[in-house]
Amino acid sequence: MPVALFGALLALPFQPHPTSAAPYAERVTEARLPNGLKLIMLEDHKAPVVVFQIWYRVGSRNEALGHTGLSHILEHIMFKGTATVAPEEYSKIIQRNGGRTNAFTTEDATTYFAMLASDRVGVVIDLEADRMNGLTLTDAQFLPERDVIMEERRLRVDNVPTAALFEQLTSTAYAAHTYEFPIIGWMSDIGQATLADAMAHYRTYYVPNNAFIVAVGDFDSAALREQIANAFGALPMGADPPPVRAMEPVQQGERRVEVKRPAQLPFVALSHHVPNLRSPDAAALDVLATVLSGGDSARLHSQLVYRDRLALSAGAEYDYTSLDPGLFTVYAQPLPGKTATATEAALVREIERIRREPPTARELEKAKNGIEAEYIFAQDSLFYQGMLLGDHEVAGDWRTIDDYLPAVRKVTAADVQRVATVYLRAENRTTAVLIPDPPIAGPLPGAAPPSGPLH
Q: Residue 451: which of 78, 67, 165, 54 has the closest Cα?
């Protein structure tokens, strides 16, 4: 669909898709094995394909100072073999069966997934059951992979100025909660991590009762449950992993951090502590993010990029499904010749404007239409449906998916203004500024902040 046409459609009053699927609660089959492993199964027979995901409830949130990055390290070494599967053979087996596989780590979870023909789903089931408690490693396998991860950090964080900035922003915004830790870990922690550290993390968190399976695609739920039970049922339940008790205290005043790096352009980001989907304010915060950043006609782009000719790009981010309360961030990268100071002032003006002036009826309608259209169109993807189920399950319960669109539809302009007033306050803000030192020449970079899972 042409971009211009899609944008025009979003401006029209939205009518729910006449063939929209029934609520997830009516389509998903849930089961739990005696060892605590939870199964979330969604049949979708549009194609003879299955997406199989296994989610472990462990991420950087579950780590400690001196041991950051262990969850991401485990993601890597889970491909290093078991007593029955040789190192690196997992991916080759999936490929030989016509499938694709990968994994990612977030603050809240570590996820392994494969997409393959429905008659081959037993292959990934057996492989995942084998490595849930059968991982075998030596230093000869572990130490080179640790070096790979250190190089990954250099390439993705240390040598990317905006990534380094957002890492410092997050570690400054959190004073008590483990969300302050980078998913990839601090370089010093990665460098001193041992095989014993990794295996202790593995034995603590990679147990059936700390995991769940999401399967979406062309299968019979009863038959799939039997396959999974045959493969995973004999694995012993583990002790419950230690809970994360850290709670971020209310911020009492604005915090600031400056990062000096060789860079072409400055970058400015302002983060605010906000609640997640468990709060009645979550839907309004999601709409607020879209009013500010939902396309070229949204407030931040239209004002800072188009009218003021101040920024190369500008936007906002809000993670609706974080397990614990997270951050609402607005950001912008100045155009060459423009300053970080002027860009920060412009971002603050737009924050104050949304606190002072609620979105117009057209802004509100366009934001809600965009959210709903994106949600509905994405239902064609088996992988997206699996991610949706997994993200909501990690955050509390997959059934809360069905609450999402109704909550968005109920959001009013006054709700958007209210959450902006409550949460986007200076005393609840952490500001991060990238200062090019020295400035370097070259092609202009993309200016979106690094976000999402770490592979």
A: 165
The rounded distance, in Å, linking the Cα atoms of 235 and 251 is: 44
Tokens 């989610």 -> residue: 55
Parallel, antiparallel, or unpaired: how do β-strands 49-56 and 110-117 relate?
antiparallel
Active-site positions read 75
Q: Beta-carbon neighbour count of residue 193 at 10 Å? A: 23
Could you tell me which of 404, 363, 320 has the C-alpha nearest to residue 10? 363
The tens place of each residue's pLDDT in the chain, 455 residues long, gives: 333 333 333 333 333 333 346 899 999 999 999 999 999 999 999 999 999 999 999 999 999 999 999 999 999 999 999 999 999 999 999 999 999 999 999 999 999 999 999 999 999 999 999 999 999 999 999 999 999 999 999 999 999 999 999 999 999 999 999 999 999 999 999 999 999 999 999 999 999 999 999 999 999 999 999 999 999 999 999 999 999 999 999 999 999 999 999 999 999 999 999 999 999 999 999 999 999 999 999 999 999 999 999 999 999 999 999 999 999 999 999 999 999 999 999 999 999 999 999 999 999 999 999 999 999 988 899 999 999 999 999 999 999 999 999 999 999 999 999 999 999 999 999 999 999 998 777 665 555 565 556 66
DSSP state of 233: T
Reference 184, options 66, 60, 62, 78; nearest CA is: 60
In the chain the domains, ranked by start, together with CATH numbers, are 23-232 (3.30.830.10), 255-439 (3.30.830.10)
Yes or no: say if 270 and 348 are a contact pair by the CB < 8 Å rule. Answer: yes
Query: Is the separation of the CB atoms in 213 and 42 below 8 Å?
Result: no
